[in-house]
Amino acid sequence: MTVHTPIDRIWPDPADDLDDDALLEATRFPDDGTWLRVNFISSLDGAATRDGVSGGLGDDADRRLFALLRRPADAVLVGAGTLRDEQYEGLRVDDASVAWRLAHGMPAHPVLAMVSRSLSIDPGSPLFADAPVRPIVYTVASAPAARREALEAVADVATVGETDADPRRIRDDLTERGLRRIHAEGGPHVFGALLAAGVADALHLTLSPTLEAGAAGRIVRGDVTGALPVAARLATVLRSGDELLLSYSLR
Q: Is 0.85 surpassed by the pTM of this model?
């Protein structure tokens, strides 16, 4: 039996128990241009993971919004480390999302776009074998040629830098493919690179009502010298129980 998880809007325009359409409206992509937003969860003391995975921090409300944020996306962008740690498989949205997308003139599923400098991704994994849409792999010129050749059989492989992936080139390539609504799901190094390049437009952050301590990292990592701090403007505050689901504009 499916358990309904109420999510209320606290600000602006308070409203109780938003349905899926209201949640989609509260978190919608702009109508024009390319928009790249990032989705994360964090504990009250800044931990981005529990037992090494972000999913350990989430509850039913976070999972509900997580699925809805994918629904209108043209592409879901994820770093290779996060794909491994969170055990991603072929990117498929649920039946309700498929119906919504088709009704809005979109393909049934978004494209999975991944970033990997080393290309240490198994071409026989469910990421590719179970993908309803051919994925895109963004890599660098210095990546091993044999690994690239193997992945080219199951994905579009694009070079976006010499030794480091350039987020601007990733965004531009997705735009050229007509994939303008980009939803990034991490990890922290990818978010750091997006911020450093100035191409992250928005952040959706679930604030989990827990204190974790330990050695868990934050939602931003990597070399962001000169790029931070980045000012964030609060756009929406949602709540489910003691959990807050926040949206910020980073422009």
A: yes
